[in-house]
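Dear colleagues,

As part of the handover before I leave the project, I'm documenting each prediction I ran so the next person doesn't have to rerun anything. This entry is a single chain, and its sequence is reproduced below.
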Amino acid sequence: MFRRTLLVRFLLCFMLVNHTTFHAWNLPSFLAIQQKVAQPQVGVIEIRGTIDSSSEITEKIRLARRNPMIKALLIKVNSGGGEIGHSSVIFEELLQFKNSKGPIIVFVENLACSGAYWIASAADCIVSSRGAWIGSIGVMFRSSIVRYEEYKNDRFSGKIVKTYIIRSGKFKALWELNRALTDDELQHAQNLSKAFYDIFCQSVAQCRNLSLEKKDVWADGRIFTPYDAQKLGLIDKVGSLSDAYNALDNELQERGELTQGVPTFITL
């Protein structure tokens, strides 16, 4: 009986010591895993090609805003622009993320023009490759006139096709292709263009801290080299994708979201 009790005590002590040693031995690994899990995440979104829709991009931004682990966004832009409405919707969605969640860094590889630059201007920092095109800030409407002419020769003949336009409202047929604009329609189109142009410029000026009084310098429709764009205040740095990563690290560190290590990047 005595031997059996002694043996049980010995086994219990051995298990306790071994259990303690096991946890002490794995404590650094355990802490490393916890630290890795706790690292902030950065959502990566790409905007490429013509901006002819906003639903996919805005949904990704909303998902990032609802995810508690995502603390910042990296937007990769390679677009010459697109529709005014789609660009403005994406711009506003990015502003909501920036104001309520965390920093946004934009990296421009080739193009950030027109509506694509409008979107990029919402960022805290814009980094551009040295070969990119930046700017083209302006609004353009296009109305082409198609002229039909009668033709006749030895082999072929044709007739003029006449189109009748039934409309209600003076300016309802403004964008029809087979007729020239009237003076009133042309003035109305110019007023529309000016109104949207003013909204575009106000958004960029506010986000980039630019003077609206000098918009003829940075918002006359010109495309700028990255170095000229940097001088004008349209971008922050001419560099590489690594510079965009560094800008993200700095933003997260300043906000106390990143104390050591690097954030985790996830493609949305």
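The chain has one domain: 40-267. The beta strands are 41-48, 70-79, 104-113, 125-128, 133-135, 223-224, 237-238, 264-267.

All the best with the project,
I.
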